[in-house]
Amino acid sequence: MNYYSTEGRSAPASCREAVLRGLAPDGGLYLPEAIPRLAEDTLFGESDDHAVLAALARPFFEGEVPPAELDALIRGAVSFEAPLVELDKSTLVLELFHGPTCAFKDFGARFMARLMSYFCRNEDTDKTVLVATSGDTGSAVAHGFFGVEGVQVVVLYPSGKVSPLQEKQLTILGGNITALEIEGTFDDCQRLVKQAFLDPELQNRKGLTSANSINIARLLPQSFYYVLAARYLRRMRGGTLPRLWFSVPSGNFGNLTGGLIAERMGLPVERFIAATNSNNVFVDYLQTGVFSPRPSVRTISNAMDVGSPSNFARIAALFRGSLEAARKAIAGASFDDDQTRSAIREAAQRYDYLLDPHGAVGYLGLRQCLPQAFEGAGVLLATAHPAKFLEIMEEVTPGRVELPERLSAALCGRKQAELLPADFSSLKERLLT
Ligand SMILES: *Cc1c(COP(=O)(O)O)cnc(C)c1O
């Protein structure tokens, strides 16, 4: 399978090239040239979940990763559960936070780390994975790559704009993981990473590669759990799949793009809901047809504080630029912090269920966008464990959240980070030393 650039000015790349480059040379994002449709039997047959995921993945790695390797890679990467919890008949939560860092990014990061390590197994120079994070990406990537041979990881995060726990998770590892604390916003971090990739000297000397949601190796496995959710749901409903909506709390839109790919592969999704916080550039696009990025604003769902969602280029490409087609497939809604707090409170009172601030935005998306008297299933993606946002949870639902073992362990670690101004020359100098 070849991969094309959304900018259309680079030659198609092999899977290996696309994965190791991250960004295409023309600055575009890679997408597979074809998204093959799988038979219903393949998606919903009796085989085990991992076998179905391997069948989903196979066409994208055809000719580059042998099926047995791919199968092992998936079993290693998706080594934790993604339970589907029913709050009521039409409101279900897909819990994507049972991985090592308690956020959905573990799916993409663990898969990507294993895939890169496979692609680089015969090389003698180290690769450098450069990643900007607004919180969860960095820790998922750092943990995904920690101890992986032949790969150095450099994580850029905005100083003072990630939760204390998130900061701990991405700074305690050491070893092949370096954390850079940038005096700026997440958008600054993302801009610096983009600049680094376009710098020929850095490219040549450091073998840079990306791990943001722009990397196709992170995107593809994010289609997996949509299929898992549908399989669980079908089982819960005695073998029939109800009308199915997914509400996706979104920032850079990698998660939602994963869903669109699953849908193209044959998953019968009626509609997606793009649920955002006040950073609502994409929701505005659905309403007005104009995509106009702007600086991000801070919210309590900070992993979605993105002013210029990078996967917009992919979504536009998947719909061939048609606003009508995008509107038909995706409903959009945005919510402010007060609404988010109320939603956390409501779910705790009505269902005795704790949603983190990101999941709460997804919950609000369902409440606002599901059709009247909907009898199908609205599945909201719970992208993080509430304990990752303890300060906010304590304020809204005091005394309710319990810290999972793997998070309390992180809190005991020692922070190791280097403070750096938000300018490219400082970053370049640091990377070359
Ligand atoms: C990254 C993240 C999101 C946003 O996902 P995108 O793929 O960037 O849209 C939502 N919730 C949490 C907890 C995240 O870490």
Overview of this structure, please?
With 433 residues, the chain is of the alpha/beta class. It has helices spanning 15-21, 40-44, 49-61, 67-77, 105-119, 136-145, 164-171, 186-197, 200-206, 216-219, 224-236, 254-264, 281-288, 312-318, 323-329, 337-351, 357-369, 390-396, 405-411, 424-432; strands at residues 3-5, 30-32, 84-88, 91-95, 127-132, 151-158, 177-183, 208-210, 244-249, 271-276, 330-334, 377-382, 417-421. The chain has a six-stranded mixed β-sheet, sandwiched between helices. It has a five-stranded parallel β-sheet with strand order 8-5-6-7-13, with helices on both faces. Strands 1-2 form a two-stranded antiparallel sheet. Strand 5 (127-132), helix 6 (136-145) and strand 6 form a beta-alpha-beta unit. The longest helix is centred in the N-terminal third of the chain and has 15 residues, at 105-119. The radius of gyration is 20 Å and the shape is globular. The model has no long low-confidence stretch (mean pLDDT 94). The structure holds pyridoxal-5'-phosphate.
